[in-house]
Amino acid sequence: MGARDSDEVVAALATTDVFALTPTVTDDGDRDGIPNVLVEAMACALPVVTTAVGGIPELVENGVNGALVAPGDPAGVADALQQLLDDPDLRSRLGAAARVGVEGAYDVDKAARRLRDVFRPRTGAELEAAPC
């Protein structure tokens, strides 16, 4: 489908029950960090099925806010998708946990406040006590 603006992405995600993204490590060792699209799906309260590569396990906890599958395991992906499609309560629980986790860790205003605190002017006493 190509590039889409954020409104189109949100509209597409709103029509789904589960989101799947299955990155792998390439032959040259390249891998995703934490794909933005996973964060976006989770912010829309979608349970995700994804692979445990790169930084993804920092975002998705298996059975808590999504499903983590070994990379290169299509049967595992299919099983996780089937389990979520068959169990609306599980979808709801994982999706709700996904949204709460993303709101807490990826909120723009909270991130800006954390950066402000890191870069705020310090007093002379604070500067003398700083390790670097």
Description of the structure:
- With 132 residues, the chain is mainly α.
- It has a single domain (6-107), classed as Glycogen Phosphorylase B (Rossmann fold).
- It is 53% helix and 8% strand.
- It has seven helices and three strands, in the order αβαβαβαααα.
- It has helices at 6-13, 36-43, 56-59, 74-86, 88-106, 108-119, 124-129, and strands at 19-21, 48-51, 66-69.
- Helix 3 (56-59) links the parallel strand 2 (48-51) and strand 3 (66-69).
- The longest helix has 19 residues, at 88-106.
- The radius of gyration is 18 Å and the shape is globular.
- The mean pLDDT is 87.
Question: What structural category arises from helix and sheet content?
Answer: mainly alpha
Q: What count of helical segments does DSSP give?
A: 7
Unreliable residue stretches: none
CATH class: Alpha Beta
The helix/strand series, from N terminus to C terminus, equals HEHEHEHHHH
Biggest sheet statistics: 3 strands, parallel
Let me know the CATH homologous superfamily: Glycogen Phosphorylase B
Distance between the termini: 48 Å
Shape: globular
CATH fold naming: Rossmann fold
Radius of gyration: 18 Å
Topology, number of strands = 3
Overall CATH architecture: 3-Layer(aba) Sandwich
Portion of residues in beta strands equals: 5-15%
Q: Overall pLDDT, averaged? A: 87
Strand order of the largest sheet: 1-2-3
Tally of structural domains? 1
Report the helical percentage: 40-55%
